[in-house]
Amino acid sequence: xxxxxxxxxxxxxxxxxxxxxxxxxxxxxxxxxxxxxxxxxxxxxxxxxxxxxxxxxxxxxxxxxxxxxxxxxxxxxxxxxxxxxxxxxxxxxxxxxxxxxxxxxxxxxxxxxxxxxxxxxxxxxxxxxxxxxxxxxxxxxxxxxxxxxxxxxxxxxxxxxxxxxxxxxxxxxxxxxxxxxxxxxxxxxxxxxxxxxxxxxxxxxxxxxxxxxxxxxxxxxxxxxxxxxxxxxxxxxxxxxxxxxxxxxxxxxxxxxxxxxxxxxxxxxxxxxxxxxxxxxxxxxxxxxxxxxxxxxx
Amino acid sequence: xxxxxxxxxxxxxxxxxxxxxxxxxxxxxxxxxxxxxxxxxxxxxxxxxxxxxxxxxxxxxxxxxxxxxxxxxxxxxxxxxxxxxxxxxxxxxxxxxxxxxxxxxxxxxxxxxxxxxxxxxxxxxxxxxxxxxxxxxxxxxxxxxxxxxxxxxxxxxxxxxxxxxxxxxxxxxxxxxxxxxxxxxxxxxxxxxxxxxxxxxxxxxxxxxxxxxxxxxxxxxxxxxxxxxxxxxxxxxxxxxxxxxxxxxxxxxxxxxxxxxxxxxxxxxxxxxxxxxxxxxxxxxxxxxxxxxxxxxxxxxxxxxxxxxxxx
Lengths: 298, 312
Description:
By secondary structure, chain A is mostly helical.
């Protein structure tokens, strides 16, 4: 995305009027639109900013009307969230979420990389059909198989088992990963691979020395996007886990009903649990669209 | 698994010039694909087939012995039961509202961001942030921090200017859910449309400007036609994600006040009411809805995809 920015031509008006005294109407309009963009950005981030501020307020200051913007800051909300007052500790849920997200992301990479290879660098016959089969499975909603999966888990003793979620999150993300990686691997020039092979390089060498350096940023972005989707998932986790394998979003559902003064704690909890997603999302920012649009938009 | 029949892919791929029995070669090429394919079929397609089968049975998990074949009975019940039928309409209304509003807002933001101005990257980052909140966390933020009638931010701001103090979730429950989803999904639409805007040919735009085309003319006759497929893509992908959205409905209203959509109904009818047959029929209906949208989505993706491939 940022790569295309320099190629966009500057508005001609700003170039032509640079030397004239006083801002021209076109220039003033341009400045106004820039200001509007800033206002929109601030408006969109305002709820999030307010949540951050509230998480650092005491419960009493958090629950005032009109709001106390300048109240003194404290870490009590975070202490409460991490179980200082004897509530349930969020650590097991955070660890479960980490296992489910990282585990499924690794499994996705193991399955998707060879598949993407067979769909781009050394394509099978009718490879577009295969690619679209993967995409069509992504269009199948979660509820399509929820009940049989629940019954299966119940009968095999897999209920409340984090490894079941690892498998399900893998199936949730595999189509996206195959699509994204296919498009990244397709960017590796065939001529370069052939040249290396003519020089006698074996396949592992070609993959490690030629393909990996070119495709690595894309693979990393794919992994981050799979991580985000797994970390966010609620419906499977809610139905298939209980006490032991509870994930972070399920832990958050404990805040659905009000419990007296608990705003600061809710804000702290929401922020802490969203932090990995915010970090991964900003890290993968440039490839985010490509992942979310299943590779259709670059 | 059939993959075992293939020789190690390494030796084969490294020697594309050797002449082997072509069948063996074909399997060697396919081998890397098979684990992913088999995994997807087992984990996604089989459960759906099971859902399809269960949907034709009258089956309450609390009375497992009373299981009997019901034909289309469950579908009839889903479509005639007033509550269930309402959830079909709620799903359609929720999806259409969220997708359309966030698409329009996303287009406006994308157009603003397509221009050069000081701090463009920073504004883009600010705008993406709502999308990067865990959906349950975002829903909690709206439910407790913004909508709370006593000390929520919305009523706090209204109080400052001496406005009324409405109970947002009770008065307009569906709108409350829609607003929170629009806030989260507008950035998604903006990102897709911004990518569309930036894929316009700069030379063509320059040529149009030199020929004296006004900004409005450029937008109507060049930008909009170019963006059409990106708008379609945003609308369709948004629909696929929102049709199966569960988190905000579950968090903000717990499906109460007439806001239960089909995914919530499926969840509730088997997880709480143990009506397996009914839940499956509702699930199959969600799938049919998604498939209708997906057919169009696949067409758009495939046309964008062909363009990419032919350009490469």
